[in-house]
């Protein structure tokens, strides 16, 4: 048995055991009383939807490689359940340090599940090239930095707590891309680095799961829940229709391409996440959904042909054009819409107020993406040290290295 195999055999179980001991100690010392965990009771169905979306949806969404199905679903499930516990621990620690306000147990758990979406997105960028130990370390670092980024947005820029959580797509995409840039590039002729009709079908099944439950994801912590659900659904519906239209228009033979459907149908949900709770007219949400789909499909052509080869960046699941670019579009749209709405109320007399509003929105966006890229690069360098046993390039995208 190879030495690297033995290393994973002993390092992964003991690392997981150590983390669980820490989580048990945390639950004994800091977790709120059991009587408050399940209140309010009406909150649970939304939480269940988001949990399904993250575990089922992203678990199948990541099955894009023909020989990496076990690892895609299995590692995603492991990272989610570890990440949720660690996210609750970090949030309780911030409450203990009086950096954040205390919330109910169920709300804290919902924030943790939403936050761990960043990990699922980042995993797609390094899919097939990172071993379990590297993925676990990446999960812990990413969630810690994401909470710090949220605290900066909330403390200094006064961004609402529910809105700062919606930066999860932006942070997850660019953190994952920065980490992926530090991994050795797979050789061009590697046959395992491709999909099959079966893997594409499972991946689209995950896309459908994510699509169905996305309205609950956007509204779970919003004040105007009905409005958030309505706007999110309209944006998703238009982006799905536009995905089929643009796929046929941009392909040489005029046929639909599953890779376009796989990514672009979700772009509307990513784009509308920042403004779903505040948009008053559904047609605005529909336009954002259309623009998100356009950015995803056109971005996939530009990035895969120009950007990725130039930077030698291998984005396995296409998280850049599925989540990154639509998130940038949504953040810019949120700033524009807030300025227009505020300007209508004050009749454009107080330009200083409008300037401050623009500064807050752009500041939160720039801070989030800068923090994600810089810390992602540092994390990627740490993950490729000898201590964490980087996977040999010849063993990329292969379940056989980890599974029986």
UniProtKB/TrEMBL annotation:
InterPro entries: Ammonium/urea_transptr, NH4_transpt_AmtB-like_dom, RhesusRHD
Record-annotated membrane-spanning stretches: 12-30, 50-68, 75-97, 109-128, 135-156, 162-180, 201-222, 228-249, 283-307, 319-340, 360-383
Subcellular location: Membrane
GO annotation terms (biological process): ammonium homeostasis
Membrane topology recorded in Swiss-Prot or TrEMBL: Multi-pass membrane protein
Superkingdom of the source species: Eukaryota
Keyword set includes Transmembrane helix: yes
UniProt keyword annotations, A-Z: Membrane, Transmembrane, Transmembrane helix
GO cellular component, one term: plasma membrane
Sequence ranges assigned to domain Ammonium transporter AmtB-like in this UniProt record: 15-386
Keyword Membrane tagged: yes
Primary site of residence: membrane
GO molecular function: ammonium channel activity
Record-stated family: Belongs to the ammonium transporter (TC 2.A.49) family. Rh subfamily.
PANTHER family, sorted: AMMONIUM TRANSPORTER, BLOOD GROUP RH(CE) POLYPEPTIDE-RELATED
Protein name per the record: RHL protein
The gene coding this protein: Rhl
């Amino acid at each position: 048995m190879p030495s690297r195999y033995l290393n994973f055999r002993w390092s992964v179980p003991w690392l997981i055991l150590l983390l669980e001991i820490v989580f048990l100690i945390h639950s004994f010392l800091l977790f709120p009383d059991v009587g408050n965990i399940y209140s309010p009771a009406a909150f649970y169905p939304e939480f269940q939807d988001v949990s399904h979306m993250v575990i089922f949806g992203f678990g199948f969404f990541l099955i894009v490689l023909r020989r990496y199905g076990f690892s895609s679903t299995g590692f995603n499930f492991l990272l989610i359940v570890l990440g949720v516990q660690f996210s609750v621990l970090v949030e309780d620690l911030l409450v203990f340090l009086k950096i954040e306000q205390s919330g109910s147990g169920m709300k804290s758990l919902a924030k943790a599940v939403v936050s761990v979406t960043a990990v699922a997105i980042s995993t797609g960028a390094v899919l097939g090239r990172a071993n379990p130990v590297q993925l676990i370390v990446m999960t812990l670092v990413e969630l810690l930095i994401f909470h710090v980024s949220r605290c900066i947005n909330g403390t200094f820029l006064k961004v609402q707590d529910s809105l700062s959580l919606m930066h999860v797509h932006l942070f997850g995409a660019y953190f994952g891309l920065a980490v992926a840039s530090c991994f050795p590039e797979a050789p061009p002729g590697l046959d395992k680095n491709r999909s099959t009709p079966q893997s594409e079908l499972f991946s689209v099944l995950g896309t459908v799961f994510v699509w169905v439950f996305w309205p609950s994801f956007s509204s779970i912590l919003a004040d105007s829940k009905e409005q958030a659900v309505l706007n999110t659904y309209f944006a998703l519906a238009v982006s799905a229709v536009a995905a089929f239209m643009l796929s046929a228009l941009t392909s040489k033979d005029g046929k639909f391409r599953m890779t376009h459907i796989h990514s672009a149908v979700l772009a509307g949900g990513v784009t509308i996440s920042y403004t779903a709770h505040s948009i008053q007219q559904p047609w605005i949400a529909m336009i954002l959904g259309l623009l998100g789909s356009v950015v995803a499909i056109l971005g996939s052509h530009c990035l895969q042909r120009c950007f990725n080869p130039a930077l030698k960046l291998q984005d396995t699941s296409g998280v850049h054009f599925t989540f990154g670019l639509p998130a940038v579009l949504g953040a810019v749209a949120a700033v524009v819409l807030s300025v227009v709405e505020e300007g209508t109320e004050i009749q454009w007399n107080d330009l200083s107020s409008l300037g401050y509003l623009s500064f807050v929105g752009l500041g939160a966006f720039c801070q989030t993406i800068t923090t994600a890229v810089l810390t992602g690069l540092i994390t990627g360098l740490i993950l490729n040290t000898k201590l964490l046993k980087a996977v040999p390039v010849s063993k990329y995208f292969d379940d056989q290295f980890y599974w029986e």
